[in-house]
């Protein structure tokens, strides 16, 4: 009888453990959400944020043991969807995504009252901007395009995803260094901006490499320069895209880091779990590495303070670029963004 009683006691102690629903394959982390996580992508489908977010979400849910549902909610240069995540209950079930430089400059632009201090950052990749043109335009080189900008002030149509997009930052940086005027045409995401340029609505697009890569490979966009100091190679594309420093040697830019953002104030087990998933899986993910290689972006996941340190230089560049050009009403230095 004593032996039977001991067996029953062991079973009684063990049963609650099995009842918790811990999925050993999912990692058994401290946080195991009972509902799907909503990941708000504050830009249109098919753009840089959407594509990198969906790839990363697929990796996370494999180990989290719960679905991560991507919801596109574009508007007001990404601030609408971002505010939706910030205003949601702090239960860890609502995240957002995008470029850290956007998140860090919303307050400078007066779009929403938030800074990087309000968020936990989980980076996945860094992306360069590429200056490309419709293949039917006469611009064969960056020299041709820069000359045309100066000869036709305010006439050449440049497609971007809006004032807070990477494409707008790119053309404004070019304007700063090369001193020209252009005609800005905005769309609800990087993919629509690319499609508009391919279709002839615009002459130039300055969005991110991941948004242009398919049309570059298909020969429907002609890439003229990448906004870095090194050439860009793309799997499946012959040759390299030359760096902008070939034409503008003093040009300075920093990597534009993308990732997922979780509002601070969520339970600690949420961020502890995501920290572990990043450390153990995302930072060594072959899926994300392959995606980066095939989309001409840089695989460089990080989280915590290291993520802030990597992404902040472009926040500085973009914030002061917008302020100095009159596009932002708030002095960046008053919210902790010193001039670079």
Structural class: alpha/beta
CATH 4th-level superfamily of the largest domain: Bordetella uptake gene, domain 1
Secondary structure: helix percent: 40-55%
Biggest beta sheet attributes: 6 strands, mixed
Average predicted confidence as pLDDT:
90
Looking across the biggest beta sheet, what order are the strands in? 2-1-3-12-4-13
Which range does the strand content fall in?
15-25%
Low-confidence stretches: 1-24
Q: Quickly name the level 1 CATH class of the largest domain.
A: Alpha Beta
Structure annotation, total helices: 12
Number of domains: 2
Oligomer: single chain
Q: Shape, please?
A: globular
Architecture blueprint of SSEs:
Elements: H1 2-19, E1 37-41, H2 48-64, E2 68-72, H3 79-87, E3 94-99, H4 100-103, H5 106-109, E4 119-127, E5 130-134, H6 142-151, E6 157-160, H7 166-178, E7 183-186, H8 190-198, E8 204-205, H9 209-217, E9 221-226, E10 232-233, E11 240-241, E12 256-263, H10 268-280, H11 286-294, E13 298-303, H12 304-325
Parallel strand pairs: 1-2, 1-3, 6-7, 6-8
Antiparallel strand pairs: 3-12, 4-12, 4-13, 5-8, 5-9, 10-11
Question: What's the quick description here?
Answer:
The chain is an alpha/beta fold. Helix content is 40%, strand content 19%. The longest helix has 22 residues, at 304-325.
Written account of the structure:
The chain is an alpha/beta fold and 340 residues long. The chain folds into 2 domains: 32-126 and 255-335, D-Maltodextrin-Binding Protein, domain 2, CATH 3.40.190.150; 130-246, Periplasmic binding protein-like II (D-Maltodextrin-Binding Protein, domain 2, 3-Layer(aba) Sandwich). It has 12 helices and 13 strands. The protein has helices spanning 2-19, 48-64, 79-87, 100-103, 106-109, 142-151, 166-178, 190-198, 209-217, 268-280, 286-294, 304-325, and strands spanning 37-41, 68-72, 94-99, 119-127, 130-134, 157-160, 183-186, 204-205, 221-226, 232-233, 240-241, 256-263, 298-303. The strands form 3 sheets. It has a 6-stranded mixed β-sheet, with helices on both faces. β10 and β11 (240-241) form a beta hairpin. The longest helix has 22 residues, at 304-325. The radius of gyration is 23 Å and the shape is globular. Residues 1-24 have low confidence and may be disordered.
